[in-house]
Every structure is written in structure tokens, then in C-alpha cells.
Amino acid sequence: MIKNGAGLEIRAMSGCVWITQYGDARDVVLSPGQSVQLDLPTTTVLSTGKGAEVALIRRAARPAARPLWRRLASLFDPRGSSGAGRALAGRIPGQRVIHC
Q: pTM higher than 0.70, yes or no?
């Protein structure tokens, strides 16, 4: 899991990588050599096959902090990353959380 990865590029070096970013309706599957840049400051889940290698590359500066009222409103948004992260915490074997 990657928390607040906006601006981060994910590149599949070997194997396949399945990427789900909360708040984005699409899932992305990368083959070796392909990459995608995260554009939302929400939690992102990476799933890989055995032996897959992934590179995380910071391509853009972290976006400016959202106003307080937006951060408070996001606490009640069911797509918010904090609730999703808490719900998944400890449930996925070998799960690692990366704070960006």
C-alpha cells in the first residue's frame, strides 16, 4: 500500500503489477517496462506476482496541502484513503505501507 502517492511513478521492472488507486474507477495492470503516474493523494494498493520487481519514482513535487475544510470533509467520504487504509491494515499477508 502507498499512502498519499500523488506524483509518484510506478514502473514494472519484471513481472506484472496490478494497481488500484482509491477514488479512481479504473484499475491498471502493468507489464514489464510499463509505468503509470499516480495523480490522486489517496491510498494505492499494489498487487504483484511472485518475483515481480517494481520501481517507485518521484516525478513531481508533492501537491500543495488541501484546505482544512476539504481535509475535514474527506473524513466523511467513503472513498477516502484513511478509512480504506485502516480497513485493510493487517488483513493482507506481507502488506507494507509506504508513506510518501
A: no
